[in-house]
Amino acid sequence: MCGILAIFNIKGTYIEVRTLAYDLSKRQRHRGPDRSRIIIIEAGPNTYHILAHERLNIVDLSDRGRQPFQLVDDQNIYYMQNGELYNYWSIKPDFEKKYKFSSNSDSEIVGMLYKEYGPNDFWNHMDGMHATILLDMNNKTYYAGRDHIGIIPLYYGYNKDGALFLSSELKGIHDQVVEIKQFPPGHYIDQTHEIKKWYNPLWHNFDHIPTGEINFQEMRDKFIDVVRREVKGDAPFGLFISGGVDSSIVAGIVAKLIKNGEIDLSKRGMRKVHSFCIGLEGSPDLHFARKVAEYHGFEHHSFTYTVEEGLDYIPEVIYHTETFNNTTIRASTPMYMMCRRIKALGIKICLTGEGSDELFGGYLYFHKAPNRVEFHQELIRKLNDLHKYDLLRANKACLAWGIETRPPFMNKSWIEYVMSIDPKYKMINAFQPQIEKYILRKAFEDLENPFVPQEILWRQKEQFSDGVGYSWRDGIIERANQLISDQQFSQASTTYPLSTPRDKEQYWFRQVYSNAFPSDSAALSVPYAKSIACSTEKALEWDEAFKKNTDESGRAVLSIHNDALKEILQEEDKITDESIKVQDHFQL
């Protein structure tokens, strides 16, 4: 993982261009604190191409893994990548028969894939998460693209002279271009400036409703194989465990791979797997995450924070995540704080549970889906937008501290497999007990050798921004009311005519964001739509109550959630003040 910056056809002297490259690349150094490299290639009289890379050492920790690369067999091909290619280890033996490698970095194979399959098709042969940029001086062409679902961020824009700027984060180039945009996932651009789609799965077809049957053993085997591939690397790794079913399944698979000898911790400088969770004192996530970690014998770290501490961090979280979306900031803040603590332990990689809810309909509002067609179409909408929300959060909040996050549920082949299943099996009323993500839970139910303790496996959904502690959101609203006067808010449409804040919390976040990124195009790069409990705006049509209460937190559908959480905690005699607040204060 790293920060990348590319500029094609920038005008100026060599010194001016190199100085600019250094200054812009440095803005992203938090993403790659280990090493830097800049390559300047002459494109014409006083015109240059720039490739700049800020490296986080993950695979091949030596200097041989520094990017940008030049293809050993063709020094006119330059390339760099932000991300990880999980099929590297399986395809490298065949490529070694034909090409020379200078390192053990997974990214080095990108140039060989380009030579082998050509500029239009080599994207399909990269299995992983990535933003990739390649320059071929043999024919004066260049290419830049983004992975299938947008796990890795990429922004682009043109300056007044027509030079193309690309960077991992908006802050790298927002003040250099006329208009800044997020680069679309599953697409690439070349020197013609046309953005072309390279990822065309069947599930992108909105009118195709799949009819695939359920095979629980097959589902289990496929996801185990995904985690097996995505946990590979040379640097120490850890696990984010929220105590929910998704991250707990990932943790359970890792534990079994270690027990089976498929993961050798000693080769990565580890004695034990470290797991992490954060929340307010007494929050649900801390309680259940510790249960999971203790079950597997992980070295667990429960980090706590106060509402006041979290509020202090919000302005820098907005700067690093480059968004003013409510739910993203609420969830990013504790994650950002947690990663600061993780960095001190020397961990560079953490596996997460992001994306499962978008594949299986795990959010509580899916209980109201009227039929299988609308259920499936909402999944498509959620997946297509995920790079603007949870994937953005997990990447930027963590790489602000040099922590790479890997979300196995977003693996390309796994998404295609799960999205081929008939949505009738994902609906809440398909099985007993009626609970979201039943088929995933059932696939990993193993009573003899459990992946996950039963009480966790069947625990109901908890949004991260709620699970860290229910008073967190209340504290944000209270602080926003203190900072933003009624008079200020009454002028919201004048101050911010684009994406006008709908409440004082949004106004506060927008104010901080626009101070750092003042352009209209920067504002338009942030999603702005009404939502209930993380729904898309379209799903508000499912229930009249949804239309009247567009609260983006999980408590907006709390009547579904309260009884389940109360029952679990009562059984264990673990009801805390934080969990009591759920049923006392927040009803639809």
TrEMBL record:
UniProt KW keywords: Amino-acid biosynthesis, Asparagine biosynthesis, ATP-binding, Glutamine amidotransferase, Ligase, Nucleotide-binding
GO molecular function: asparagine synthase (glutamine-hydrolyzing) activity; ATP binding
InterPro entries: Asn_synth_AEB (IPR006426), Asn_synthase (IPR001962), Asn_Synthetase (IPR050795), AsnB_N (IPR033738), GATase_2_dom (IPR017932)
Organism of derivation: Paramecium pentaurelia
UniProt-recorded name of the protein: asparagine synthase (glutamine-hydrolyzing)
Enzyme class of the recorded protein, top EC level: ligase
Annotated Glutamine amidotransferase type-2 domain residues: 2-194
PANTHER family, alphabetized: ASPARAGINE SYNTHETASE, ASPARAGINE SYNTHETASE [GLUTAMINE-HYDROLYZING]
This protein's pathway: Amino-acid biosynthesis; L-asparagine biosynthesis; L-asparagine from L-aspartate (L-Gln route): step 1/1
EC number of this enzyme: 6.3.5.4
Catalytic activity entry: L-aspartate + L-glutamine + ATP + H2O = L-asparagine + L-glutamate + AMP + diphosphate + H(+)
Pfam families named among the record's database cross-references: Asn_synthase, GATase_7
Listed GO CC annotations: cytosol
